[in-house]
Amino acid sequence: MDIEKVANLIVKKFPRDHKIKDPFYVLITTVLSQRSKDENTEVAAKNLFAKFKNSKELSKVKPEDIYELIKPAGLYRQKAKRIIEIAKTVEEKYKGKVPNTLNELLKLPGVGRKTANIVLYVSFNKEALAVDTHVHRISNRLGWVKTKTPEETEFALMKLLPQKLWGPINASMVEFGKKVCKPVKPDCKNCPIYKYCKWEGKK
Fold first, then answer.
1. Is 131 left (phi over 0), alpha (psi -120 to 50) or beta?
2. Domain spanning 23-124: CATH superfamily
3. With bands split at pLDDT 50, 70 and 90, how would you rate the model's confidence at 203?
């Protein structure tokens, strides 16, 4: 199986454009997106940034001040605390500018590799491979990797895919995973890469 060929096909068939590239917006929206549907994340982010424009403004409020704004994204108490901590760190340690390296992004409160890599690719146009549950699941289903965790998948895919695909593959696999290669009852009959799939459970 030509993995690069299949990856290119996924990117072509399931394009996803990131309209807003502001680093702080992307960072906070990614935090909000954890265990949340896209449509709920969008509502929460829109609510939050309509009232607080940047890290400076958010660093001055209390978590409970944003509970209602971000409630649509779920887990709002934990996320509010995290968002305020991130805003304060960005202001105090980075003078209001989100860092543009993986090592520095990982120093932000609660920011993991997936979130950091999304910011690097979307906001700073760097070759970074973000692996979430969709990417992890689909990569294993296709037979590209045999890994137990998203982090293991990230490092395995970095060896298999050319760097130009690292950024695009995340967003496209998310779309592919929501529309076709779903966690439960994947739509195999309408899958554009069915013949390349090594999954034993495919219909």
1. beta
2. Hypothetical protein; domain 2 (1.10.340.30)
3. confident
